[in-house]
Design brief:
By secondary structure, the protein is α/β, with parallel strands linked by helices. The chain has 17 helices and eleven strands. Helix 5 runs antiparallel to helix 6.
């Protein structure tokens, strides 16, 4: 009787799945028979004399000595594990909430007609809800001018709020923290914000502090990289990273169209993250840091000036966003994933990409379709900096992601707006609130920033996150998401 096998079984999709399984498990297919054969051999050595004649000489041989030496060397120079104990994202008060129409009304009173019309178009297409947050200093425009002291108050409010939540969640005492790293782009008081934290929480005299500024929306992952490097040199230490931005410090009050766009994009927010290299923290920690990959395109003048702070002809300082920004972002993303790919992609996917390169570079097959590695085989979760709707659209297209993968980024952009370097943490908090994070899951955080830079952090979930046991900015309203963000709501002039 003939076998009735569906032709779908031999589809390209199923063949590719089988290919990935075979290649990914090839080491086990080799190791298991080898170990089994060795075990069977040892069982045949039934007497002590057999042991002396066969096993002892083998242990004295130089290959075994070399293996023991290399193993000892590995454990001596290997990197310390760095754990993400927990993190907290600041949720502003309801009084800080401002609708797009309210913001447009302020802009209409502050700027000339042409500038107001441009910002109206940007706000309508922003993908933002009417529940994002702005500091009091902006909400009181144009009656009161922006001041340095108002920026200080607003920044302290966000930073202290996030840190208070973090210390409450982790039960770690402030004086136990040995490393403090703060990243912020536009506001740089003296003493620094890291010193402000030391003063407010009365940290120890031996605390190591760092203040990162001017590095844009990707600075949060740069801070994670710095913390990781410092924790490799410390014994049993905590490092706290604080990522935020001062919205009013970068607010532009001139008429240059290229500088007005940023007024519509950035919103109030911040995050505090506690990292540890203590083995005792491994059980209670949420994630383990696997990789940080940083790529910088600053040597290219076009990339360097794609996000550029400067004065206009009237002396007003603002940040220009070039028309070629998306092209630059695409190029730097390609560089970043080319470096990251070999670290995270299964060998089966790397072989396919290597085959594409051979066909294109060696056999000069120019018409061959570019092979985009399937990063969904390497990660369960993608947290892409919520810089804007266009950025997320391009990332979804280039990485061939699904709506489910993009949901945390799109909902963060909708609910909180572009909170700069802290946006990837609001996205992770979203997935936790949705109950999506399972033990063993792999998460990829991607940040873009001025310079121009693209940075990636890869995390491994140490446990399944129970949303019922979590408190984060999404907790009280997570049941309302996801929402349809494709509708453009017109604003009155």
């Amino acid at each position: 009787m003939a076998l009735n096998v569906s032709s779908k079984f031999f589809s390209v999709k199923n063949l590719k799945v089988g290919y990935h399984f075979l290649i990914s498990h090839a080491p086990y297919l080799f190791i298991i028979p080898t170990i089994s054969s060795l075990g069977f051999y040892l069982l045949t050595l039934s007497t002590l004399e057999d042991l002396n004649n066969h096993i002892i000489p083998m242990l004295k041989s130089w290959p075994i000595i070399l293996i023991v030496f290399l193993a000892a060397l590995y454990f001596r120079v290997r990197q310390r594990n760095v754990y993400l104990v927990d993190f907290a994202c600041y949720k502003p008060n309801e009084a800080d909430m401002m609708s797009k129409q309210q913001l447009l009304d302020i802009m209409s009173s502050t700027f000339v007609d042409e500038a107001g019309h441009l910002q109206k178009k940007v706000l309508e297409r922003s993908g933002y809800s009417d529940k994002t947050y702005l500091p009091e200093s902006i909400r009181r425009l144009p009656e009161k001018i922006l001041t340095f002291e108002e920026s200080r108050k607003g920044t302290e409010k966000v930073i202290f709020g996030a840190i208070d939540d973090l210390l409450a969640k982790t039960k770690v005492k402030a004086r136990e923290i040995g490393i403090v790293i703060v990243n912020i782009g536009m506001y740089n008081p003296t003493p620094s914000l890291s010193a402000m934290i030391v003063n407010h929480y009365k940290l120890g005299v031996d605390v190591l502090t760092y203040n990162i500024s001017g590095m844009g929306c990707s600075a949060g992952l740069i801070s994670i990289d710095l913390a990781n490097r410092l924790l490799q040199t410390q014994v049993s230490a905590y490092a706290m990273v604080v990522s935020t931005e001062s919205t009013d410090s970068g607010y532009y009050l001139g008429k240059d169209r290229s500088k007005l766009v940023s007024n519509c994009l950035f919103r109030m927010g911040g995050a505090a993250i506690l990292l540890s290299n203590r083995f005792s923290d491994s059980r209670r920690s949420k994630y383990k840091l696997m990789h940080v990959v940083r790529t910088h395109k600053g040597a290219d003048d076009r990339a360097f000036k794609s996000i550029y702070q400067e004065q206009d002809e009237d002396g007003n300082v603002g940040v220009s966003l070039s028309k070629g920004l998306m092209v630059v972002a695409g190029e730097i993303l390609k560089s970043n994933i080319t470096t990251l790919g070999p670290l995270v992609l299964p060998i089966s996917e790397q072989l396919l990409y290597f085959g594409y390169l051979i066909a294109r570079k060696i056999f000069k097959l120019k018409n061959i379709k570019p092979y985009i590695p399937d990063f969904k085989l390497a990660f369960e979760h993608f947290f892409i900096h919520a810089g804007g709707r266009a950025v997320l659209d391009e990332m979804e297209k280039n990485l061939e992601l699904t709506e489910w993968h993009m949901e945390p980024s799109r909902m963060t952009l909708y609910r909180f707006g572009n909170t700069s370097s802290s946006s990837v943490w609001y996205e992770l908090a979203y997935s936790e609130a949705k109950g999506r994070i399972k033990k063993g899951d792999r998460a990829w955080q991607i940040g873009f920033g001025s310079g121009f830079k693209c940075n990636s952090a890869v995390w491994h979930a140490m446990k399944t996150i129970n949303p019922a046991m979590e408190t984060n900015p999404w907790t009280d309203e997570i049941h309302e998401f996801p929402v349809n963000v494709s509708v453009v709501v017109p604003l009155s002039a």
